[in-house]
Amino acid sequence: MAMNQPKLAYEKKGQKEDSNAPSASAVQTTKAAKSNNFMQKFLPPAIAFIVVVGLWEIVTRLLGYAPYLLPKPSDIVLSAVENWSNLMTSVMTTVYESVFGFLLSIIIGVSGAVLLASSKIIEKAVYPYAIVLQTIPVVAIAPIIVIWFGAGVNSIVIIAFLIGFFPMISNTLIGLNSTDGNMQNLFKLYNASRWQVMWRLRLPAAMPYIIAGLKVSCTLSVVGAIVGEYIAGIGGGEGGLGYAITVASSRLQTPYLFACGLCASILGITFYLLVSAFSKWALSSWHESEMKSEN
To answer: What b/e readout covers 246-273, taking b as 16+ CB neighbours within 10 angstroms?
Structure first.
């Protein structure tokens, strides 16, 4: 009997350790909760989209509107299929211009915010001009940019950058200035340099604000690229969505006009979803905003 006691104790210990493992029912409950969460997020918009498109198709068929006034959804799809090659060329051109403008707004916006946050004197002297630049309509600045940089991709990228620049610099600056003062004092207590405080404390603390700026800037860069293509766009087969929209409207090709607008919308949504995925990857392990969204 004495020989069996350690074995029984070991078995009880094993049973205790196994009890801490998640049960099959708990795993199934978690999967069901995630499935329900997915359905609650995506099912209502999908149903609304199907209903709106269906009503649109039915109403336009019953009222007999001319396609150049209000095309049916089926006309839009047919026009996109017929002009698929040109449409994809325009989309890829706009993607190229939007991405480069977006990257410029990130690099210059974050760098400018770091510079402004490092000195209150510089912030008070320079930041008002960033606000003034934001208040000037891009349509008014665009002709000057075309004169300086010439018509084409360079001007379009700069216009996309200008539209996406202010959300980046303003959000990053707010985040850098919102760093916990006690943490800054702790860094100073350990004789950290200003660069170490900025790089190891203030920038990580400002990351949620930077990502909020990214979510705004990524969609605005698409708008900026299309606006730039209106004014300084490349013509012919290398034109972007802005140029395609201009040509379609001048020729009363309304179904193709709608197809170009839909592609621009999908492009902006795709950029936003990519930034949201980056936000979850960067913040889910430590910041409350993404930790709560996962639960």
So the answer is: bbbeeeebbbbbbbbbebbeebbeebbe
Residue 93 · residue 239 · CB < 8 Å: yes
The domain covering 72-294 belongs, at the CATH homologous superfamily level, to MetI-like (1.10.3720.10)
| Amino acid identity at 246 | T
Please give the structure tokens belonging to residue 251: 């020729």
Give me the torsion for CA of 23, 27, 32, 37, rounded to 10°: 130
Predicted TM-score of the model (pTM): 0.80
Q: Which of 14-23, 38-47, 216-225 has the lowest mean pLDDT?
A: 14-23
- The answer to whether the beta carbons of residues 242 and 229 sit under 8 Å apart is yes
- The secondary element (H helix, E strand) that includes residue 205 is helix 203-205
Separation of alpha carbons 219 and 239, rounded Å: 20
91-103 pLDDT, tens per residue? 999 999 999 999 9
Per DSSP, 196 falls in state H
d(CA 242, CA 8): 77
What are the extents of the domains in the chain? 72-294
